[in-house]
Amino acid sequence: MGITTGKACYKSRYFGPSSKSRRPRYKKNFQKKRRLFKRFFGSRFFLIFFGIVGFSLLLYIIFWSNFFSVQNIEVIVTAGGQELDAEVLTQEVRKRFLGKNLLFVSANKFFFLSEEPAIKDFSLKKNWPNQFEVLVTKRVGRAVLLDSKQKEFLVDEEGVVFAPVSDSDLLVISYPSKSLAIGDKVQGRAIQFVLAVLSSCSEAGLEVDSVRAAGNVVVEFMDGPQVLLPLENSAITRMVTMVSQFRSEGEPVSKIDLRFKNPVVEYKE
Q1: What are the backbone angles phi and psi of residue 15, rounded to the nearest 5°?
Q2: I want to staple 206 with a disulfide (CB 3.0 to 4.6 A). Which of 167, 171, 201, 232 is the partner?
Q3: Is the CB of residue 161 less than 8 Å from the CB of residue 153?
Q4: Comparing C-alpha atoms, which of 229, 231, 226, 230 is closest to residue 253?
Q5: Minimal CA–CA distance to 155: which of 263, 38, 165?
Q6: Ranges in the chain, pLDDT < 50
Q7: What is the pLDDT of residue 24?
């Protein structure tokens, strides 16, 4: 009786789990940690693996494949004048850049265009993944310069001498101070002003017969009028505006003097 009672008391005083009930919980925790370990290191391995594969593929596309290899080039040259052969220019660009990687084609690679006096400006437009076009702006002759050796050259509104000429309908400006060469830029306030006058008149569709610059500037338009103006850029704008307005209104103007604050206008009799 005493032994039986002792066993019953022992069981009634123990409130923890038995050794059999504790084993599954430890095993379960171990398996959970193992799964977390595999998930963490497994996912990181695959991320690293696919990262290396993706980066290698990107390098291959950029440096070794033909995906960015230039296959087509278009050179667009602005119209006007025969001083620049567009076909020769196109062939030169294609010879230099066909088959090159478009990623590494930049405007500074076209330095040879900047060395051509007849080219005023150019721009590059990329058409991905393997084409580009170049827009070339040619210089436009505004006048003919006659140098000290009686040679004639075309000059643009910036004063850049860019081509020899033997026969032209442009206004001839005497430049006896020096012998000119292709690529020269003429200096002097008076001649720069005359070139600005010719450029503005050409853009406005006004034909100039002659220009004289000696202190003040005298501009003779085809079919009139004669305009006297000071060496001021604002006077050029006033001249073009007034001549265009008088012509549109049919006013018989013979002379305009812009050397004063208020213009002096003479009419034909």
Answers
A1: -110, -5
A2: 201
A3: yes
A4: 226
A5: 165
A6: 1-12, 14-15
A7: 57
